[in-house]
Amino acid sequence: MHPTEPIYLRRDCNALMIPSGLPILLPKGTPIRIQQSLGGTYTVNTGSQLVRIDAGDADALGLDLAREPAKAASSAEL
Q: Per residue of the chain (78 residues), what is the pLDDT tens digit?
């Protein structure tokens, strides 16, 4: 996924604000842009702030975790 493609949360999603670490609830339908995926977490931009979303909430982003490791492995081979 290209970082500039907006996606919309599929359900309410817990996140942590960056850099404060304060918890926040992002409502379903919030437009976000994935900035980084690293170590099972996702850094996303909501348009007004950066937040971290844990891998357990990847379904809210519309991501299939079963495909993510394979995608990362194939990128590492390049």
A: 555 679 999 999 999 999 999 999 999 999 999 999 998 899 999 999 999 999 999 999 987 755 544 444 444 444
* DSSP code for 22: -
Q: What Cα–Cα distance (Å) separates residue 68 from each residue in 1, 19, 63?
A: 11, 26, 8
pTM of the model: 0.74
Q: Which amino acid is at 14?
A: N
Pairing of strands 13-17, 50-54: antiparallel
